[in-house]
Write a structure and sequence with these properties.
Layout: E1 26-29, E2 37-41, E3 48-51, E4 56-59, H1 61-73, H2 77-100, E5 105-112, E6 115-120, H3 126-133, E7 139-143, H4 148-164, E8 170-175, E9 180-187, H5 196-201, H6 205-208, E10 212-218, E11 222-224, E12 227-232, E13 237-240, E14 246-249, E15 252-257, E16 267-269, E17 276-287, E18 290-297, E19 304-306, E20 313-315, E21 318-319, E22 328-333, E23 338-351, E24 354-360, E25 373-376, E26 379-389, E27 393-399, H7 403-407, E28 410-411
Parallel strand pairs: 6-7, 9-10, 21-26
Antiparallel strand pairs: 1-2, 3-4, 3-20, 5-6, 8-9, 8-23, 11-26, 12-13, 14-15, 14-28, 15-18, 16-17, 17-18, 19-20, 22-23, 22-25, 23-24, 24-27, 25-26, 26-27
Helix pairs in contact: 1-2
Length: 414
């Protein structure tokens, strides 16, 4: 995992920010020799993305995403674009099912890139099946023991039980496919941990029949990806973080990142345009809804985000509000300066004092990437938190859909 900081300045402002009042127009060219695109200036048109490699505006960012992940995973791009489009179609349907049938609907997972499995505790209601069928996605039905509400309650009970035992450093999650729970308990001090047998002996009765996979590790189970370093602003050492998506509250607009990045950051440099702007901290949050904070700026705020080392930019057109095991997602952090991708492994994780984290199938990224965008096409999925040890280390993020609950702002869209 690459952990070297790439730029000796604070990299929180990775939004497409030009001078105030900049017109959405064009890329900045080198001016000498072949015209090589340098950076996009202004606002990317709705639903499009700017390809910094070619200097062209393109539509359908999902096609670009599918090509990248297919190469990484040895898949046919056409196969992956089908899944990415299906994820979009299912987003609204899954939210309705979770609201309407919380006591019977467990969730959905991808058996492969072309086929999904919907899990219900009881026979599926006709209108629920019609809703899923209406998406056109190939789906089969599986009757399971627990609904999502059941597993959430059991997960909360397990976390409460660990706290009652005096344990503070742990990660817990529901395992959708196995219909059980997963827990990792960390040891970072001199105090001896209770054994697995001792913990199980003190669990409440409702957890005794639940399949719980438990692991013990030396060291912390959650590692936020912010690090000290970079320039000194004359008052406080700057904290390396990456900004994710633009936000607004009423008429006030700004940029958001991870809440653990702190309150002292007061400027940023856009590494692609070279523009530097001030930041003013508004408020932050670490807890039930995740890990967020936001800042206002004297730079112009657009609804776009960077996602490649070359400076490609995509317009934000929606917020992803439901996640399924096997969903393909992408993320970018300025410290490692790479675009990464993987599939969702756990859809609700509690770790390091945060809840409602989503954890991926790999741990790509590193310190300084905190707060960076997680996305699929132009859909904002979340903000990078860091690593959580849950059946191995994984990149985890706070869901963008919960930023309003956490800090009272909304994602800026087209």
């Amino acid at each position: 995992m690459e952990t070297r900081l790439r730029f000796p300045v604070l990299m929180i402002g990775l939004l497409v920010l030009g001078a105030v009042g900049a017109q959405p127009a064009r890329a900045q060219d080198s001016g000498t020799g072949p015209q090589v695109p340098k950076a996009w200036i202004g606002d990317v048109p709705d639903g499009m993305w700017y390809d910094a490699q070619t200097g062209q505006l393109r539509d359908d960012p999902l096609e670009r995403d599918a090509t990248i992940a297919a190469l990484d995973r040895g898949l046919d791009p056409a196969e992956l674009i089908t899944q990415l489009r299906a994820q979009q179609k299912l987003d609204t349907a899954l939210n309705i099912l979770q609201d309407r049938y919380a006591d019977s609907f467990e969730g959905l997972y991808w058996a492969d890139t072309s086929h999904a499995v919907a899990q219900f505790k009881s026979p599926i209601p006709d209108d629920a099946w019609a809703l899923l069928a209406g998406t056109g996605v190939p789906i089969t039905l599986q009757i399971v023991r627990y609904s999502s509400a059941d597993l959430n309650r059991l997960q909360d009970e397990l976390a409460a039980s660990l706290r009652e035992l005096g344990l503070r450093d742990y990660a817990v999650a529901s395992d959708t496919r196995a219909q059980g729970l997963v827990a990792t308990i960390g040891k970072s001090g001199p105090r001896a941990l209770p054994s697995e047998e001792e913990i199980r002996a003190r669990l409440p009765g409702q957890l005794l029949s639940v399949d719980i996979h438990m692991e013990f590790v030396n060291g912390p189970v959650a590692l936020p990806w912010s690090v000290l370093g970079g320039a000194i602003d004359g008052q406080n050492p700057d904290l390396w973080c990456t900004s994710g998506f633009s936000v607004y509250s009423g008429s006030t607009q700004g940029t958001a990142t991870a809440g653990h990045c702190g309150t002292s950051m007061n400027w940023y440099k856009n590494p692609f345009t070279g523009a530097t702007h001030s930041l003013t901290y508004k408020n932050g949050y670490i807890g039930t809804w995740g890990d967020f904070e936001w800042f206002t700026s004297n730079g112009a705020i657009t609804d776009d985000f960077y996602h490649t080392s070359a400076g490609s930019v995509t317009d934000v057109s929606s917020v992803k509000s439901s996640f399924s095991v096997g969903d393909t997602l992408y993320w970018y952090g300025q410290a490692t300066n790479q675009e990464h991708n993987g599939t969702v492994s756990y859809t609700r994780v509690a770790a390091g004092g945060r809840d409602h984290l989503v954890c991926m199938s790999n741990n790509q990224g590193g310190p300084g990437d905190s707060g960076g965008p997680v996305y699929a096409g132009g859909s904002a999925a979340g903000y990078i938190f860091g690593s959580v040890n849950l059946n191995g280390w994984r990149m985890c993020f706070s869901e963008a859909a919960y930023i309003d609950d956490a800090i009272g702002v909304s994602i800026k869209l087209s």
